[in-house]
Specification:
- By secondary structure, the protein is α/β, with parallel strands linked by helices.
- It has a domain of about 160 residues: Rossmann fold (3-Layer(aba) Sandwich), CATH 3.40.50.300.
- Helix content is about 35%, strand content about 25%.
- It is built from 8 helices and 10 strands.
- The strands form 2 sheets. It has a 6-stranded mixed β-sheet with strand order 6-7-8-3-9-10, with helices on both faces.
- Strand 4 and strand 5 form a beta hairpin.
- Helix 3 runs parallel beside helix 5 and helix 5 packs parallel to helix 6.
- The two termini are about 20 Å apart.
- The C terminus is likely disordered.
- The structure holds adenosine-5'-diphosphate and magnesium ion.
- Magnesium ion (MG) binds next to helix 1.
Length: about 230
């Protein structure tokens, strides 16, 4: 579902350029859940942006849901993001002028896959049914992130990418939000790539990969060896 081969990415910089990804490869099968760990600045967000078609790699091949991302033009990449990828960020990124119901429906309406029944199910599962007419600023962080997850899943994308999605939440809300996200991902067979600093979160995924010096490796701990 995600296939990245020999990806390199260097940002120009002064006094010298910053090589971030240095021949990195990653393959994630359909329905698999994978945790991506790595020190701050190791390039996790850069990798997610490249996989999500938000940013171009310098070299290498990225295939998402059967599409060669490098072969797409800007419009094609926008269509890929809209149709095949759900994105959840640390800062929620809800649309402040839309209420919860409209935020939830936003991406699905854009790609013509809005399904009122599924939207209702998501709202219920995420504990948002009573909040549909509220605005983002009237919600707690945990509630906002639940809306962001619902919005990303509303159009049933094959792939969900989450960049430290619980990084702005207190421990209890983080655990609740993550549990909800994981159960929805597993029930829908969505492929998940999640960036996290939490070993406890990483342990709940099918597989863990660690980014260091521009490449990925499997973590060497016992938990990481499972599956
Ligand atoms: N747009 C950019 N321009 C220049 N340098 C960048 C840019 N984005 C990220 N970087 C640099 O690339 C490296 C990796 O960043 P990032 O992918 O955000 O790491 P992480 O998400 O693992 O913390 C860092 O050194 C960062 O400063
Ligand atoms: Mg990051």
């Amino acid at each position: 579902m995600i296939d990245a081969r020999d990806i390199t990415k260097t940002y120009p910089g002064t006094p010298r350029a910053v090589p971030v990804l240095q021949g990195l490869s990653l393959a994630v099968s359909g329905g698999e859940t994978v945790a991506l760990t790595g020190e701050s600045g190791s390039g996790k967000s850069t990798l997610l942006h490249i996989l999500g078609g938000l940013e171009a790699a310098d070299t290498g091949i990225v295939t998402i849901a059967g599409q060669d991302v490098g072969a797409l033009d800007e419009a094609g990449r926008a269509a890929l993001r809209r149709d095949s990828i759900g994105l959840v960020f640390q800062q929620f990124n809800l649309i402040p002028s839309l209420d919860v119901g409209a935020n939830l429906a936003f991406q699905a309406r854009l790609n013509g896959r809005y399904d009122a029944g599924w939207a209702g199910t998501l709202a219920e599962r995420l504990g948002l049914s009573d909040l549909l007419s509220r605005y983002p600023e009237e919600l707690s962080g945990g509630q906002q992130q639940r809306v962001a997850i619902g919005r990303a899943l509303a159009s049933r994308p094959p792939v969900l990418m989450a960049d430290e999605p619980t990084g702005n939440l207190d421990e209890d809300s983080a655990a609740r939000v993550l549990d909800l996200m994981l159960s929805l991902v597993r029930e829908t067979g969505t492929t998940l790539l999640i960036v996290t600093h939490s070993a406890a979160v990483a342990a709940q995924m099918d597989r863990r990969v660690h980014l260091s010096r521009g490449r990925l490796s499997a973590p060497s701990d016992a938990v990481g060896a499972a599956s």
